[in-house]
Write a structure and sequence with these properties.
The complex is a heterodimer. In chain A, β1 and β2 form a beta hairpin. In chain A, strands 1-2 form a two-stranded antiparallel ribbon. Chain A has 12 helices and 2 strands. By secondary structure, chain A is mainly α. In chain B, α8 packs antiparallel against α9. Chain B is built from 14 helices and 2 strands; from the N terminus they run ααααααβαααβααααα. The chains are: A mainly alpha, B mainly alpha. At the A-B interface, α4, α10 and α12 of A face α5, α10 and α12 of B.
């Protein structure tokens, strides 16, 4: 196999890994803080994608400039995270903290089923395609193959910004530190005057917004069909589990690993590309059942 | 125990009589029984505090085994197809179980989901072998050597499935009160203590997983025969989610629960097909939330009612 093919596969893998990192890191953050595995996370991804695509198409319909799509992505991601994510946390999840893990899984699973149908009702079942923002950024030639700047540069940059931003936010800002404190010892943190209820709510909103941002960014590269959320939840769980649930930097490494593995499969054995993420996950979990990065860090966030 | 027997007996009599009164209902009832069998498998796991969002894997695997055997004209006979396909599912459960019983709660549920989604994707992608998203047709096999007309075949399939379901339910009920079944409940309440008693919780859960895989496989084998075709949808997460839904709806208090749940599920599906065809899963989701928050013991618990409140009576029986 020629080396330039390998290089091209690597570029694909980075773009893909960056995208799943955005979703997986939200899942991991929510688990780290709330202790709940949010099965509805894939729905936030899908809803983020649909809202962003609709906003971009609406903006184009009004004759607004294409670059407006990028702020629109961010706005729709935050909107979805705050409105949908906030509602789910405040109305449902708040009632089940401290109950059996299985019950929590079932509740988020129920939310997932509801949101999947809500998407179909609101956005329809016809494929939605809004690739103007991707075309607007132009292409770059690598080894005779044209890549879009959008996938090659923008998505990885956003992922990097989220990674660095989250790290700084959790370590340097007082609110971020409060999140870490609640994660480590909820009662002690509350005794220090931290409002754990609002911490949970905001963390869930941030996590949901990150998933929606991943969806918004993906909306320019693929056509949106019902069911994209269910694939994503399994994939982002694979990433988060490979890294160890609740590990943020680990999620970046795992996402990259899985992204590279998958794009290598796309080039060399296309029928089995869907298998690669799970094979990596199973291989990792067989050796380290708690994920790759559990012993390296003792902190959960 | 006595209440459990009463509920089971009433349910059984109703099921035996219903197809005689209204022949159109045999296929729907058979489908309900198949889903009830798979949900019974979920119930076994729920007793250990574990939930699987991936039992569609075993359901679909045995359905496809039936489809391949039927297409190859190999053992084209119900009495051969069902046991072989069920055993094949059990084999898959035995393999997957080796890996999966190391995990609990979230990992247990999600790894099951991941494995079944892999199988689903393979069924869809390997078009040349599996027929892709269109699936495969299952020609009607012979029953005890006889070639039957569709309606006669469906009629007999229902009673065979009912008999299998009764045997399965009684077997599971026995298993749940056996030492293995009691150890299974201990995984939920206090796994560490179980290990201190010298019982390997992994072995206990492995046995339960194998049993649940066989039950789902049995359901899948029959559903392939009565519906006449198999599609990758059988392995999709939605299907697995429905099994969990049925188990929770029916209640995990007794083995009649999943079958009650499966019948109710068919009724809800019937109404939803008329009144909410687009939002049918949302209806399920809302109902699941309502059950979890307001009736955690499910239909069985609602009917059996005060059974738990009066354990003395039960002991004195």
């Amino acid at each position: 196999m020629p080396p330039d093919m390998l290089f091209l596969a690597a570029l694909d893998g980075i773009a893909y890994g960056s995208l799943i990192f955005l979703v997986a890191v939200g899942l991991s953050l929510i688990f780290g803080v709330l202790g709940v595995l949010n099965v509805a996370h894939g729905s936030f991804y899908a809803i983020g994608a649909y809202v962003a695509a609709s906003a971009v198409l609406a903006a184009a319909g009004m004759g607004l400039p294409t670059w407006l799509a990028f702020p629109l992505f961010l706005i729709s991601a935050i909107l979805v995270g705050v409105v949908v994510g906030g509602a789910v946390e405040a109305l449902l999840l708040r009632r089940i903290y401290g109950k059996e893990e299985v019950l929590q899984l079932l509740v988020t699973f129920a939310v997932f089923m509801i949101l999947e149908d809500a998407q179909k009702v609101i956005f329809g079942v016809r494929p939605l395609f809004a690739n103007a923002p991707m075309n607007w950024l132009g292409t770059v030639e690598v080894f005779g193959i044209y890549y879009t700047n959008y996938q090659l540069i923008l998505i990885p940059l956003v992922a990097l910004a989220v990674l660095v931003g989250l790290r700084l936010f959790l370590r340097r800002t007082s609110f971020g530190r409060a999140i870490v404190a609640v994660t480590q010892d909820r009662e002690a943190a509350m005794a220090m005057g931290i409002n754990a209820t609002s911490i949970y709510l905001f963390t869930f909103m941030i996590g949901a917004s990150l998933a929606a941002l991943g969806g918004a960014l993906s909306s320019a590269t693929t056509s949106l069909t019902p069911g994209i959320g269910s694939g994503m939840i399994v994939l982002s769980f694979a990433v988060a589990a490979t890294a160890g649930l609740g590990r943020i930097e680990g999620a970046a490494v795992a996402a990259l690993m899985i992204g590279l593995g998958r794009s290598a499969a796309v080039y060399f054995a296309p029928e089995f590309d869907v298998l690669i993420p799970y094979l990596i996950m199973v291989a990792v979990l067989l050796i380290k059942p708690e994920g790759l990065f559990t012993t390296l860090q003792t902190r959960k966030v | 125990m006595s209440r459990q027997i009463v509920i089971g007996a009433v349910l059984l009599v109703a099921l035996v009589a219903f197809p005689l009164v209204s022949p159109w209902s045999t296929v729907i009832l058979t489908v309900a029984l198949c889903e009830g069998l798979a949900a019974l498998g979920i119930l076994v796991l729920l007793r250990a505090g574990q939930v699987s969002f991936g039992h569609g894997l075993f359901f679909a695997f045995s359905a496809y085994v039936v489809a391949f055997m039927a297409a190859a004209k190999f053992g084209h006979e119900v009495l051969l197809l069902v046991p072989i396909a069920t055993a094949a599912s059990g084999l898959v459960a035995a393999l997957v179980g080796l890996f999966i019983v190391r995990y609990r709660a979230i990992f247990f549920g999600m790894l099951n989901l991941a494995i079944s989604m892999v199988f689903f994707s393979l069924l869809e992608k390997l078009f040349s072998i599996t027929g892709g998203a269109d699936g495969k047709r299952v020609p009607r096999p012979t029953l005890a050597g006889m070639t039957l007309e569709r309606e006669t075949f469906e009629f007999w399939m229902f009673y065979i499935t009912l008999a299998l379901a009764v045997i399965a339910a009684l077997g599971v009920a026995r298993y749940l009160v056996s030492p293995g079944g009691k150890a299974l409940e201990a995984i939920k309440t206090n796994e560490t203590r179980l290990e201190y008693l010298g019982v390997s919780s992994r072995k206990v859960l492995y046995g339960a997983y194998l049993l649940s895989g066989l039950l789902a496989g049995l359901g899948g084998a029959v559903i392939a025969l009565v519906s006449g075709h198999v599609t990758p949808e059988l392995a999709y997460w939605v299907r697995s989610g429905e099994f969990v839904f049925i188990a929770i709806l029916g209640g995990v208090g007794g083995v009649a629960g999943p079958f009650l749940g499966a019948l109710m599920f068919q009724i809800i599906r019937g109404y939803a097909a008329v009144y909410a065809p687009e939002t049918w899963h949302a209806v399920l989701g809302v109902m699941l939330l309502v059950i979890i928050f307001f009736a955690p013991t499910g239909l069985y618990g609602l009917i059996a009612g005060r059974k738990r409140a009066a354990p003395v009576k039960e002991g004195a029986r």
